[in-house]
């Protein structure tokens, strides 16, 4: 009876927590100062020191344990012919309450921090002409990098020749250098200690359409090692941006591009450059398809071959559940201060364009 009372109290705390989060969300400057630049860095570094040395993802195992617990509770409910449904619901709400609390305390409040364009002092609006100018720069840079890394303009750049597992470990190490270089401009991007893993849930992630994720409870960056290797550098930097407290996908994308472009490794630069280019060229297409085709014709065919690698991989993983996963993730983004859902990713283009206006030699 005492245990049930405890579950009820914890469960009733859930709506109160939700109200508190909504209230705090109205004060992004406060969250920026006291959480994102105060409490969170301490928590994040603590977890990275504690778990970063493990060669496997502790967070993935934790998820597995939670799934087993949920299944065992469902089996108990069924075997008791749903007679214990009240206890089941109370316990379930209590678990959700604990998860909600841990999520926001350990990472999730970063969703409500000050927008990145304000933090770095740039605008968030741009014209088609400005977009095209940045796209042309990225095409030129990507073409130059491609020619340095490939034997022919028409052949894709091959990453991790030979032992892919060894190359993946090298990518994880190499990300630190890009962030160290970027830290000179943005002191807040002080990354060490590292905690980045090849996820144990690679196939489920692929089915759901995810290249990686950050475990918000253990603060481990997870990479889906099944994706094409040319994506590993930029995805690794993206998940590390999440670790640094930049929760929004568009902002993590921008930081990932900057971290790869500031890396001395040409493969990193290429990975980030063609990633940014894809977003920009898609934005051009959405505004003027004919102009998009014209710009696309200026790209080396080998770059398009790398894009095709990604497209072929995701086509292979296509499944009937994908629209459901997209809907769920879109709603997750909307629930966490990204009202445009999946469309909010275009904000990265705004950051790229306006950053280039302020620092013209970036691309």
Descriptive keywords:
363 residues, mainly alpha, 2 domains, 3-stranded mixed β-sheet, 15 helices, 66% helix
List the helices and strands and how they pair.
Blueprint: H1 2-24, H2 28-51, H3 58-79, H4 85-106, H5 116-119, H6 128-149, H7 164-182, E1 196-198, H8 202-208, E2 212-214, E3 221-223, H9 232-243, H10 249-261, H11 266-287, H12 289-296, H13 301-316, H14 322-335, H15 347-358
Parallel strand pairs: 1-3
Antiparallel strand pairs: 2-3
Provide an overview of this structure:
It is a single chain. By secondary structure, the protein is mainly alpha-helical. The protein has two domains: about 1-110, no CATH class; about 115-360, no CATH class. It contains 15 helices and three strands. The chain has a three-stranded mixed β-sheet, covered by helices on one side. Helix 7 (about 165-180) crosses helix 9. The protein is globular, with a radius of gyration of 22 Å. The mean pLDDT is about 90.
């Amino acid at each position: 009876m005492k245990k049930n009372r405890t579950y009820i109290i914890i469960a009733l705390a859930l709506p109160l927590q939700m109200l508190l989060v909504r209230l705090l969300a109205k004060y992004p400057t406060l969250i920026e100062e006291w959480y994102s630049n105060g409490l969170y860095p301490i928590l994040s570094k603590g977890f990275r020191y504690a778990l970063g040395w493990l060669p496997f993802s502790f967070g993935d195992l934790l998820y597995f344990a939670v799934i087993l617990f949920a299944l065992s509770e469902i089996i108990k409910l069924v075997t008791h012919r749903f007679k214990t449904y009240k206890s089941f619901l109370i316990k379930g709400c209590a678990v959700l309450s604990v998860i909600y609390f841990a999520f926001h305390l350990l990472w999730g409040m970063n969703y409500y921090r000050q927008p990145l364009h304000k933090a770095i002092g740039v605008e968030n609006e741009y014209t088609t002409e400005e977009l095209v100018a940045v796209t042309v720069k990225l095409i030129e840079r990507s073409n130059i990098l491609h020619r340095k890394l490939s034997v022919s303009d028409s052949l894709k750049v091959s990453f991790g020749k030979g032992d892919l597992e060894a190359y993946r470990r090298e990518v994880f190490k190499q990300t630190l250098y890009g962030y160290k270089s970027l830290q000179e401009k943005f002191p807040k991007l002080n990354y060490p200690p590292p905690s980045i893993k090849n996820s144990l849930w690679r196939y489920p992630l692929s089915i759901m359409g995810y290249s990686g994720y950050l475990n918000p409870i253990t603060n481990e960056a997870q990479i889906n090692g099944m994706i094409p290797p040319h994506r590993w550098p930029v995805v690794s930097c993206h998940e590390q941006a999440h670790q640094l407290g930049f929760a929004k996908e568009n902002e993590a994308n921008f930081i990932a591009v900057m971290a790869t472009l500031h890396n001395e490794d040409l493969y990193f630069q290429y990975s980030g450059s063609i990633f940014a280019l894809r977003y920009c060229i898609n934005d051009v297409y959405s505004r003027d398809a004919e102009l998009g085709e014209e710009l696309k014709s200026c790209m080396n065919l080998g770059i398009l071959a790398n894009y095709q690698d990604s497209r072929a991989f995701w086509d292979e993983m296509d499944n009937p559940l994908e629209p459901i996963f997209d809907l769920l993730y879109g709603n997750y983004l909307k629930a966490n201060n990204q009202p445009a859902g999946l469309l909010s990713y275009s904000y990265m283009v705004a950051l790229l364009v306006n950053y280039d206006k302020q620092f013209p030699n970036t691309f």
